[in-house]
Amino acid sequence: xxxxxxxxxxxxxxxxxxxxxxxxxxxxxxxxxxxxxxxxxxxxxxxxxxxxxxxxxxxxxxxxxxxxxxxxxxxxxxxxxxxxxxxxxxxxxxxxxxxxxxxxxxxxxxxxxxxxxxxxxxxxxxxxxxxxxxxxxxxxxxxxxxxxxxxxxxxxxxxxxxxxxxxxxxxxxxxxxxxxxxxxxxxxxxxxxxxxxxxxxxxxxxxxxxxxxxxxxxxxxxxxxxxxxxxxxxxxxxxxxxxxxxxxxxxxxxxxxxxxxxxxxxxxxxxxxxxxxxxxxxxxxxxxxxxxxxxxxxxxxxxxxxxx
Length: 308
Description:
This protein is mainly α. Helix content is 80%, strand content 4%. It has ten helices and two strands, in the order H-H-H-E-E-H-H-H-H-H-H-H. It has a two-stranded antiparallel sheet with strand order 1-2. The longest helix is centred in the C-terminal third of the chain and has 75 residues, at 233-307. The relative contact order is 0.12.
């Protein structure tokens, strides 16, 4: 009986073990799908990591010295027109003024270039025309209707002869004619120097005006730093770039003005030397006419004395 009980108990354990082993195997094998499912879940963020970020993180240092991570702005347009449009009103006024100064510089340049070229050509042609003239009358006929400073000198000499008719001494006539020539030369020099003062002013002041716009813009950038409580370069770089654009425009206006001023100073000096040659040629023609008039008077006097 006891042996039967032991046998039944052993059979029951075998049956229970045989029936329980699939359940145990199922329970043991059930975590495998969970692990296989968890693996893609863990690997799922990988494609997102390879996607292009919309913003780049940068280290931000606050005013109290603490460091943190924050987004860095990368989409700011730094073209000259965009910087001008986003600049402060004072910086805009400075840029507009410098652009107007540059326009004036090139206007004076082209206008003065044409004026000097025409004046030099006319005076050179007039000097060549009267080179063989023996008197003021011949010189005026040789010039004809040409307009130049030489024609003005000859006209002043003829007018002085007409106004001084009846005066015996020639010294006073020559002095008065030389005074008229000097006035005409000074007037011609003033006419040729018109616009040179504008070039000198622009060349001397444009860099400082641009520097004023830069200082104003950088000051506003530092004010923005204090308000935003950050020293991130990406935040203040657009404002600094806009401020530096004013200095660039100042140099663009000043450098050509200085170069053009120096060039025209040399050209005007050469032209005034030609004006001095024209004045000397007119004075020589006047002196010849005066000597001829005295010679004619002397011969007339000798003939009349011989007739007596």
